[in-house]
C-alpha cells in the first residue's frame, strides 16, 4: 500500500539531488532506453538509491532516473520500469508515478513495446493508446486509500488525456510519421500470450497487448497526472503471423525504429 509519507520521503530525497525540478516525466519501455542518452545536463540516480523505490530487473531496463533537458524542456526520464512478472505488486510498480507527481511534474509520457493484435497493424508501427483493458485482474489502488494521494474511486474515462493525444497526433504529423490509434490490453506475463488469448482480446476490442503501462495509468488517474502513451508494435501477437515470438525480436525492432521513435517523442515534448 502506498502512503503519503513514503511518497514525501522519496520526493524530498530527489529534491536534494536535483539542481532543478522536472516539468514532464517520461517512462521508456523495452528496447527504448537510448532516448535517455539524448538528454543534456543530466543527473542520473539509480532506483536503488531512492527511498521506497524498487529495482528494475527486466532485460534492457537500466533501472535509473535520468533528469535533464530534452527538446528544451526539463524532463525526468525513467530509463526502465517495473513489471508484475518481476514479482512486484501493482502498488510497487505504480509508486514512481506518485513521486513524480509530488515533484511537480505536469504531464506523464508513457512508452512501451507491444504485440500487434489488430491485423491491420505492421511490425514497427507506432500506436497512440486511446484506452486500455486491464486483464491482470489487479489494481495498484487495492487496500486502504490515502486521500492525500487521490480519491477512493478515480474516474478512468479520460485517463489518456484527450488534449495530450491531440498533441501527439500533431507531433506525428510534424515528423511525417504515421501514428495509429487503438486500445491497449495489459497482461501480467512474462510468457507471451497464446493464440486463443489473442483472439479473445481482439474480440474484446484490443489492438495491442503488453506487460506494462496499465498500473501506471491507473495511478496517474488517481493522483491527477495527465497521461499520453505511445506503443511501438515490436512484434505481431501470437497467432497473427503463426510464427514463434521472442524477446530478441522486440529489442531488434525497437532498435530499428528507434530513430523515428525518438523524433516523435521529442516533437511531442516540444508541444506539451
Strand content: 15-25%
Instruction: Tell me the Rg in angstroms.
Output: 17 Å
The major pleated sheet works out as:
5 strands, mixed, barrel
Measured distance between first and last alpha carbons: 32 Å
In the sheet with the most strands, the strands line up as: 5-8-7-6-9
| Class based on secondary structure composition and strand pairing | alpha/beta
The total strand number stands at 9
Element-level helix/strand string: HEEEEHEEHEHEHEHH
Shape: globular
- Number of DSSP helices? 7
Please, could you describe this protein's structure?
The structure is a single chain. This protein is an alpha/beta fold. It has helices at residues 4-17, 90-102, 162-175, 195-204, 214-223, 247-256, 258-271; strands at 24-28, 40-46, 64-70, 73-79, 107-116, 126-134, 179-186, 208-210, 227-236. It has a 5-stranded mixed beta barrel with strand order 5-8-7-6-9. Helix 3 links the parallel strand 6 and strand 7. Helix 1 (4-17) crosses helix 2 (90-102) and helix 3 (162-175) crosses helix 7 (258-271). The chain is globular and about 50 Å long.
Q: Can I get a quick summary?
A:
By secondary structure, this protein is α/β, with parallel strands linked by helices.
Layout of helices and strands, plus pairs?
Elements: H1 4-17, E1 24-28, E2 40-46, E3 64-70, E4 73-79, H2 90-102, E5 107-116, E6 126-134, H3 162-175, E7 179-186, H4 195-204, E8 208-210, H5 214-223, E9 227-236, H6 247-256, H7 258-271
Parallel strand pairs: 1-4, 1-5, 5-9, 6-7, 7-8
Antiparallel strand pairs: 2-3, 3-4, 5-8, 6-9
Attribute tags:
globular; about 270 residues; 5-stranded mixed β-barrel; alpha/beta; 9 strands
